[in-house]
From TrEMBL:
One of its GO terms (cellular component) is lipid droplet. InterPro entries: P-loop_NTPase, Rab, Small_GTP-bd, Small_GTPase. It comes from Geospiza parvula. The keyword Methyltransferase does not apply. The gene is LOC115913971. Belongs to the small GTPase superfamily. Rab family. Keywords: GTP-binding, Hydrolase, Lipid droplet, Lipoprotein, Nucleotide-binding, Prenylation, Protein transport, Transport. One of its GO terms (molecular function) is G protein activity. Pfam families: Ras. SUPFAM superfamilies: P-loop containing nucleoside triphosphate hydrolases. Gene3D superfamilies: P-loop containing nucleotide triphosphate hydrolases. It comes from the Eukaryota. One of its GO terms (biological process) is protein transport. This is small monomeric GTPase. Its EC number is 3.6.5.2.
Length: 205
């Protein structure tokens, strides 16, 4: 079997319905579903990507936005080199409520251990309630990368993940410690197709 190479763990967080699963689906499968059911617990997908000539595998974890479907939160963040914090540009409450998620990020990550990105999703919809400059301002205030996306039209989606990975690769401390903390090494190629509730994969984090 070919060595799996560098695998990075990314995490999607944000309120329920902002489009985390849709962004993941769009990025990994190139598809969009107008009616997705809420995520229960946590889910993940693996995607191979060539970034600036370097082959990288992304293990992308999609968390439930609904409190009642969330479980042991700190473990979600463990070992994540990148966290994507998503809000819905057409639902102001998902933007004004970002404080809760920023507190979580502050509690479970450090700037030296994780690259963070703020994503304003659903830009295809006409009923915008959060302007781009508001997102940008918040991102600047908290030293986050920032991008707007539409999982529906795919606008900005690939770019968002690419920017995040580029930033991670530019910060070798995040993945090249030479102490066995070089991301996650996937041993089974079948893991690339696996999607479900944590399962055996959790042991690899
Ligand atoms: N128009 C439009 N609809 C979107 C977009 N992204 C997601 N949606 C829709 O918004 C709804 C919620 O999307 P999800 O991807 O399930 O949201 P989520 O953040 O994963 O929600 P939880 O699993 O509950 O945390 C679905 O009906 C999606 O089809 C988008 O970019 N544009």
């Amino acid at each position: 079997m070919e060595p799996a190479g560098l695998t990075l763990k990314l995490l999607l967080v944000g309120d329920s319905g902002v489009g985390k699963s849709s962004l993941l689906r769009r990025f990994t499968d190139g598809a969009f579903e107008p009616r997705l059911t809420p995520t229960v617990g946590i889910d993940f997908k693996v995607k191979k990507m060539l970034v600036e000539g370097r082959a990288v595998q992304l293990a992308i974890w999609d968390t439930a936005g609904q409190e009642r479907f969330r479980t042991v939160t700190p473990s979600y963040y463990r070992g994540a080199q990148g966290v994507v914090l998503v809000y819905d540009v057409t639902r102001k409450a998902t933007f004004t409520g970002l404080g809760r998620w920023l507190n979580e990020l502050e509690m479970y990550t450090t700037s030296s251990s994780t690259v963070k990105m703020l994503v304003g999703n659903k830009t295809d919809k006409p009923d915008r309630e959060v302007e781009r400059k508001e997102g940008l301002q918040l991102a600047r205030k908290h030293s986050l990368l920032f991008i707007e996306t539409s999982a529906k039209t795919q606008d900005g989606v690939h770019h968002a993940f690419e920017e995040l990975v580029i930033k991670i690769l530019q910060t070798p401390d995040l993945w090249d410690k030479g102490t066995g903390k070089k991301g996650i090494q996937l041993m089974e190629s079948s893991a690339q197709q696996h999607k479900g509730l944590c399962g055996a994969y959790c042991a690899l984090i």
